[in-house]
Design a protein that fits this description.
Oligomer: single chain
Strand content: 5-15%
Largest sheet: 2 strands, antiparallel
Order of helices and strands: HHEEHHHHH
Radius of gyration: 19 Å
Distance between the termini: 28 Å
Structural class: mainly alpha
Number of helices: 7
Length: about 180
């Protein structure tokens, strides 16, 4: 955490300046990890893992405030932009963990029509999961660790293509 590192008396002035700049930017790289996402025409899905109890609340408040300010300035409008408060779900099991990533990616793929092939120009993290794209800000590794890279029938792509059959999950190593 930035605040903890700032209290270190041994920190250099250069690093202190850098950390203060990051703090002013509300950079959440030490607080959350983005596992998966999908941008829909009228909403979005983020699969975020937090490192502290309030990280997601702070991140979502910052994200929504900044986007609202941008949107209002761009379109010369005032007022709130979002209908209500964001919705969050606490993940308690490996099955929920995997199902949520599949749900998010199925939302993105449904926008494309019949194909379950990832399209890089579509706004989702699915190409990150299929190896077509790599970004420093999306971290699919924890989810992909549950799937085979060699056996196509046990791959993440096969998991997403499969219907929501609970028995399908039993084919995967959930450790």
């Amino acid at each position: 955490m930035i605040q903890v590192r700032l209290t270190d008396p041994e920190i250099s002035s250069k690093e202190r300046d850098y950390l203060l700049k990051q703090l002013r930017l509300n950079n959440f790289t030490d607080e959350i990890i983005l596992l998966a996402y999908c941008l829909m025409p009228n909403h979005f899905h983020l699969f975020v893992k937090q490192h502290s109890e309030t990280a997601i609340d702070s991140f979502m408040q910052s994200l929504c405030t900044r986007y609202t300010m941008y949107f209002n300035r761009r379109y010369k409008r005032v007022g709130s932009l979002f209908q209500g408060v964001y919705k969050a779900v606490r993940i308690e099991t490996d099955e929920q963990f995997l199902h949520l990533s599949r749900y998010i990616h199925k939302q993105a793929l449904n926008l494309q029509g019949e194909t379950l092939e990832p399209q890089i120009d579509k706004p989702s993290s699915y190409p990150e999961f299929t190896g077509q794209q790599k970004s420093s800000w999306v971290h699919p590794e924890e989810i992909l660790a549950h799937f085979s890279r060699k056996n196509p029938q046990l791959s993440y792509r096969a998991f997403v293509a499969e219907t929501e059959d609970p028995h399908f999950l039993s084919h995967f190593t959930l450790e």
